[in-house]
Amino acid sequence: MSACSHLGQADELSAPLTSVNYTDWPFDLVAVAKPETPTKIMAAEGVNAFGASGMMCCVTLPRQWQPGMELVVRTKDGTRAKNSQEWDVEKMPTIQHRVPVPPYTPRDMGTVWVQLLPGGKVVLVVSRYDPDHPSWPGEVKGWPLPT
């Protein structure tokens, strides 16, 4: 993670990506890109239902947060295919979400978190804290629990 935080230009900060899935459905892909280049993925990972992904390097953001900032989060539902023939037929679509980047400071930069919430809601959190930490700034607190 420390190597990731030193990448980028002087006016940028870089941080790993972690996805946290609060739904009962897995995602084969959770990827982050800039709105001006939505197909150029900075970091991507899959995530299980009611789980969290690993850390993928790196998402770059401007050193200074600005109102109206967004990132593109691309998701692809987990497959139900049991073999390659079913995989070819299933053709799961990739969905593109434009997601606001919440206010942050360079001191906050630790991880760029993607929270996948019920109802197809996708939220970004920029924090050096995990979701179960008392100082976690995200809308949804704690790790996912199966329902």
How does this model look, in words?
The structure is a single chain. The chain has 147 residues and is mainly beta. It has one domain: Immunoglobulin-like (Sandwich), CATH 2.60.40. It has 2 helices and 8 strands. It has helices at 2-5, 84-90; strands at residues 12-21, 27-34, 37-47, 56-62, 70-77, 94-100, 111-117, 121-127. Strands 4-1-7-8 form a 4-stranded mixed sheet, with no helix packed on it. A 4-stranded antiparallel sheet has the order 3-2-5-6, with no helix packed on it. It is globular, with a radius of gyration of 15 Å. The N and C termini lie far apart (32 Å).
Which short descriptors sum up this protein?
single chain, 147 residues, mainly beta, Immunoglobulin-like, 4-stranded mixed β-sheet, 2 helices, 8 strands
CATH architecture classification: Sandwich
Stated plainly, the CATH topology is called Immunoglobulin-like
Instruction: Give the overall pLDDT as a whole number.
Output: 88
Q: Supply the number of helical segments.
A: 2
Summarize the structure.
The chain is mainly beta and 147 residues long. The chain has helices at 2-5, 84-90; strands at 12-21, 27-34, 37-47, 56-62, 70-77, 94-100, 111-117, 121-127. The chain contains two helices and eight strands.
SSE topology sketch:
Elements: H1 2-5, E1 12-21, E2 27-34, E3 37-47, E4 56-62, E5 70-77, H2 84-90, E6 94-100, E7 111-117, E8 121-127
Parallel strand pairs: 1-7
Antiparallel strand pairs: 1-4, 2-3, 2-5, 5-6, 7-8
